[in-house]
Amino acid sequence: MSSAALYNDQTGVETAVDAGQESTPSTSNNSGAAFGLFSADFKKNEDLKEMLESNKESPKLEAMKRIVGLIAKGKNASELFPAVVKNVASKNIELKKLVYVYLVRYAEEQQDLALLSISTFQRALKDPNQFIRASALRVLSSIRVPIIVPIMMLAIKEAASDLSPYVRKTSAHAIQKLFSLDPDQKEQLIEVIEKLLKDKSTLVAGSVVMAFEEVCPDRIDLIHKNYRKLCNLLVDVEEWGQVVIISMLTRYARTQFTSPWKGDALDENSEKAFYESDAERNQAETNTYIMDPDHRLLLRNTKPLLQSRNTAVVMSVGQLYWHLAPKHEVSLVTKSLVRLLRSHREVQFIVLQNIATMSIQRKGMFEPYMKSFYVRSTDPTHIKTLKLEILTNLANEANISTILREFQTYVKSQDKAFAAATIQAIGRCATNISEVADTCLNGLVLLLSNRDETVVAESVVVIKKLLQTQPSEHSEIIKHMAKLFDNITVPMARASILWLMGEYCEKVPKIAPDVLRKMAKSFTAEEDIVKLQIVNLAAKLYLTNSKQTKLLTQYILNLGKYDQNYDIRDRTRFIRQLIVPSEKSSALNKYARRILLAAKPAPVLESAFKDRERFQLGTLSHSLNTKAAGYQELSDWPSVAPDTAVRNVEIIEPVNEIVPKAGKSKHLKSDKFYSDEEEEKEERSDSSSSEDGSSSSSSSSEESEDESQEESSKHSSASENTSSESEQNSSDSESDSKQKKTKKTQKKKKAKTAAAQSDSDENGNGVEASSSSMESSSASETDSDSDTDEDMKPAQNNIREKSKLQVKPKKEVSLLDLDDFSQTSTNAPKPSVVSHSLLSDLEGLSLSNISSAMQVTTSTFSQVKDYDLLHHMSGKGLAAKYHFPRQPCLYQPCMVTVQLVLSNTSDHSLEEIHIGERSPASLNIHCFNTIERLEPGASVTVSMGIDFSDSTQAANFQLCTKTDQFNVSIQPAVGELLMPSTMTEEDFCKEQSKLLGMNETSATITVPTANISRLAINKEILSVANVGAVPSNQSDVHRFAGKAVSSGSLVLVSLSLQQSPTALLTVNTEKSVMASMLLRVLTQALTAA
Amino acid sequence: MVPLPPVVAAGRGRRVNMDLSRPNLQLSVEGARTGPQRNWGEAGSEEDFKVKNETKRREPPSPSSTMIHSLFLINASGDIFLEKHWKSVVSRSVCDYFFEAQERASEPENVPPVIPTPHHYLISVLRHRIYFVAVIQSEVPPLFVIEFLHRVVDTFQDYFGVCTEAAIKDNVVVVYELLEEMLDNGFPLATESNILKELIKPPTILRTMVNTITGSTNVGEQLPTGQLSVVPWRRTGVKYTNNEAYFDVVEEIDAIIDKSGSTITAEIQGVVDACVKLTGMPDLTLSFMNPRLLDDVSFHPCVRFKRWEAERILSFIPPDGNFRLLSYHVSSQNLVAIPVYVKHNITFREGSSQGRFDMTLGPKQTMGKAVEAVLVSSQLPRGVLNVNLNPSQGTYTFDPVTKLLSWDVGKINPQKLPNLKGSMSLQAGASKPDENPTFNIQFKIQQMAISGLKVNRLDMYGEKYKPFKGIKYMTKAGKFQVRT
């Protein structure tokens, strides 16, 4: 037992070391020195026991640390159990933790003693500190002692309704532990899971789905109600939870939605065509297949996760798209998957495996990234072969020459296993792409003269296979090989050549017998496999050309008969009986030719990853290519989608999340179920979708049944009411009861609404809804973004309730905007006082976006200049004007708000008006949301934010409609790059005194007497610059203060009237360019009579 | 421990045979396996038996889908020096399968990351010459485990400065505490370094001393507040006297240059690493002059994705300390400037036992910046016995066993280009190698991001003080290969 002895030796040393350490603080063991000599395990444990029983903390801690060390090394420390377990109630938190570690490790073995600790945990479960509660539950559930199952069950149930999400998370973890300890508790545990699934904390979501996956992965019905919530929360869940949720949702979606690939069925075969006609396909598809909005929701909400830093998350989104997305959308994930190849070796390995499987079915997806799969000499072999595999899969007529050139380098690699794999790959390219088959063959033939025998052998083998697939016209190569034969020493290669000779001896009738003659000479010196093939060749030649080779064959058979190898002797005997006619073997003899020269099927050269597609991508099973324990098959798409209403309950009742339990009435209200934000989010998305629903269903009302039409209008009106909060509750219950009454008709109608919705989704309207939902769930400050897209619109009439809660005016604004929108009859904007009041309203609401330090006032100036952005002649009917409303931009403080008035002067409606390319590329624009449709004669006002970076350089961008793009540019006047700021006169003077010298520009001007009054001066200055007047008691000095929008640097303007017509105009700012420009425009404005 | 005692090796062989012949009797085989072959002390073996019996008694009908069952740390010489189990103990004999795979692999990197065994699956990563082997019992996304293991390594590195066997052994208690927090029942719990640091304080010499004297602990008493907040990555109550935020834009060029000097493939991968030491809850925005350059990005979870989508601005509440804010890929449309070129002439003459070696490096497209820290390495063909070279600058080494040539060039002086010239002696009688060696080149260029990416500005909201901001650019060679 050498290892044991050795081991003990080592322990001896260790103990000595340990003993040395111990002598430091408190333990007074004078026997310490003796340990080293005796070095028995139990002795050491005695010492530990002593330390554990000490009444001071530090020796205990020291002892526990050493015990943990023992556990870590895999040594046994179970004898100390009684001593350790006593310390479970210790006050010292580190000691306690270490005791926990110990308990979890050994409790299973010492069940009786472990029970001693239970009461401590039970007490800790009631602790006011959530951390202690959670960790008590963690340990309690980790002690795998069957007797405490009821206690655990109770603890889990309690923790599942704990106030702290952290404790709830722990309880979700505990569910799995209890389940593996006692599967009989399944039913009860499912109840807890059901409860926790409803939890809306992102902390809990991942863990509970994990528990769900383990305990009851087949109870898909539990997910229905939570599906949308999970989709929406997904971005905010921690990364590990995301992986679990995504893979669960993949399975879910495959059971609940119909296949988005139906329309693509034809294209499966001809991928090439599919790519070229992507756009048309898109349209064709919307005609035939309509995606369930929930399906779309999942795809949309997982997409941002492709940007995750966690490779597992990216991969799981990748597989989700692969398994769920319409074919033309799958390529969205390509880039991110390729990015993962930069990661660690192991990550590369897994990702490459998945890409290999994907690239078999969808070459086009990875073709643009072909170069990312080029092999580097430093890659480990398994990575190299995977890359090779992918390159081979990607090969097509267009890129084959590049790939083959690359392969040439690989063939020369010093890594011979890899070189051999490359030759195989070349063979595959040759069979797949007939154009290059000859080139490949010739290349391979050249390799026959390679020095390395693996390379030669591999090439011969591959050539053999290639010739087998296309035996015609290749006698040349066979001849060539015959010529090379003398130089080839690798037995395998020689054998292969001989086999080829025999197989195609009729094609080389002159050479084959000659080869046989040579072989007969060297027979005895050959390797066994070669000898076998010589016998083979002889037999075949005998059958085809017995005249020339009869004697040779007999000679070879005789040699073989006395060979040392029994295989060869057997084979010889067999062949002789088969081919040489004699009186005994006549029956077989007749068939000899058919036996030996039967047409052999060509070997198939195909990817090793061909059969991996049966496994879900990204799984362990896929990686191993065998079914791993616990692998769950991805079900096929259902042919008919199951009832979508199970999820859609919320759509009809946006505010309430209803929890229909058996026996409970649907009327149960749970207003507080969602936080306000969420509520709002849902409402908004609903209102927009139902809006769309109503419009589209009314347009298509002719075809629809009367009943459903009525219902749909009712439905839409109901949801409109819902969102106008004054009647919220009543309308809610109203819609509720309606819903109950007409439940059946509704179900029928459901498909229709869904259709309408998905329509809107397709067009991008849905994107808005999702974006708003994402924002509102992430942080409240970004919240304002989405609303403000729209609240700049002239929805003046509706701004009444200034005193409302924050959410409410917002909702109203967006809703009414939508109203405006559907009517599309907005007049030219009237940016008057009212809009300012709206603005100031909003300013108060969304303080978060404007830094509080910056006190910006809205100017009282109300006269606005319109500028032409796009003339209707050049815009094919689309006309655009813009003006600067001089409101602080709510998207970003450094942006200037610009309002665009888009009007359609053509006779057809314009669709999908949005902002396209911008230049310079770095230009920072906050675009308005895409306008779906602009009817002829209608106009709409949208606002956008542009960061001009405090320069008057024009912002160039494209204004796009569905069909056209127009290059437009906005050049701001220098005064528009400012925003007014309030200041006292004192402050003004102080700031001004800081901005002297270089920062001061001034000019003496002559002001017409008509303009000398304060009012007139204010008016003139404010007309060209967006600054704020500083109240002053000096009548002859006028001061204005503003800030540059982007940089925030102060701009101070002062005008001191000296002697009546002359005045001194001074601009103080750090921005000298701006100063001089400002000075010029101000001078112009003031001097103009 | 010295390399595996012969008994163990023999035992391993025997087990494999038994497995093959009696695949259904795995349990008894396992029992036999644990006994004599890997004997970890008398007491240990006894306990192992007990555990075996335990599992035999309650072999679950379907294996539980606990993600990560156990973790073994194995050093380069094949010793298991740490083990941690999150559920029932898995005997370390399961690692024998790993050792087998290790033996089969020619290089340490060639060990397959996923190894199936009859009852478990082993997923391993190799970093710092330590194998981290996770034992899995059932279906789980392999990347999930791999990513987690890498996160574990990163955490160790973060805590101990290095992640070596010695460091882990020295800090075994902290390691254990960390592993305990990072994984609950095999499912990741807290992997964010900021949270972990609140739970378990990283060991420092000072703290160890204080702890020894006062008996205070390394373990935090409170639930890390971050865990519950909307910004789980940031510690609360951060205070600094000097408020600083540093950003390093580091770009790596991956390229393959072919024999004639033309670029076969080249791409730029970049990262923005940050070191942010700011008091309170700062809200930062970082904008680029040319964000369009960034093609494919991945973010630290703190970055607000919506904001990036809409405005191409990075807006985030940073974690405390060092973190990777963003990694990106520069879109392939942009032509990549290759900063160095290599002129080479390496020939082996047929029949002669000499080869000629001549190689010159030069800068190209560096925008006037110096190319520094240049290191050329190459695996010469096996036939090369020795080299006799003469560098015009720097030093070179050649290892006749591994045939690894490396030339530490240092800085490239454009006036006097570095050159390495001389002869190689080949094995007498051996035929000429059919491939010329590939050169791997490393270099650094300070003060430049080769893609031209520029940070425009960094703003801070939410806090009153004025932080010190710094930005540094650097270009490095990634996988930069020159084929000859």
**How many DSSP H or I helices of chain A?**
47
Assess the beta-strand content of chain B as a share of residues.
35-45%
Classify the fold: give the CATH topology of the largest domain in chain B.
Answer: Beta-Lactamase
What is the average per-residue confidence, as pLDDT of chain B, rounded to a whole number? Answer: 78
- Distance N to C terminus of chain A: 112 Å
Q: Strand arrangement, largest sheet of chain B?
A: 11-13-9-8-23-21-16-19-18
Biggest protein-protein contact in the assembly: A-B, 133 and 134 residues
Task: Note the beta-strand portion of chain A.
Answer: 5-15%
Q: Report the principal-axis shape of chain A.
A: extended
Instruction: Write down how many β-strands of chain A occur, each being a DSSP E stretch of 2 or more residues.
Output: 15
CATH hierarchy class name of the largest domain in chain B: Alpha Beta
Distance between the terminal alpha carbons of chain B, to the nearest Å? 44 Å
| Main beta-sheet strand count, sense and barrel state of chain A | 6 strands, antiparallel
CATH architecture verdict of the largest domain in chain B? 2-Layer Sandwich
Broad structural category of chain A: alpha+beta
The oligomeric state of the chains shown is heterodimer
Uncertain segments of chain A are: 1-42, 264-286, 650-862
What gross morphology of chain B would you assign?
A: globular
Largest sheet of chain B: 9 strands, mixed
Tell me the count of domains of chain B: 3
